[in-house]
Specification:
Length: 75
């Protein structure tokens, strides 16, 4: 991930965590639903790694949100 995009990845990770918590899911439970490790889930939420579109769409399905909702960054 490029440094200049890191803030956007952080905002995305915060939104994923927000919707995960709204659904009363742990990182492990969400990770199981999208077939990734809990560690990978944590790294996505903390912007330590980039996320593929496939995983992003799976997260949307598991959280019952649209991609637009995940990318609606609060300022």
């Amino acid at each position: 991930m490029r440094k200049e995009q890191r803030g956007k990845y952080k905002a995305l990770g915060l939104n994923i965590a927000y919707y995960r918590k709204m659904r009363s899911l742990s990182q492990e439970q969400l990770a199981e639903r999208v077939d990734i490790s809990r560690t990978h889930m944590s790294r996505i939420e903390t912007a330590e790694c980039a996320v593929s579109l496939d995983v992003l769409f799976d997260l949307c399905d598991a959280l019952a949100v649209t991609p637009k909702q995940l990318f609606d960054f609060r300022t």
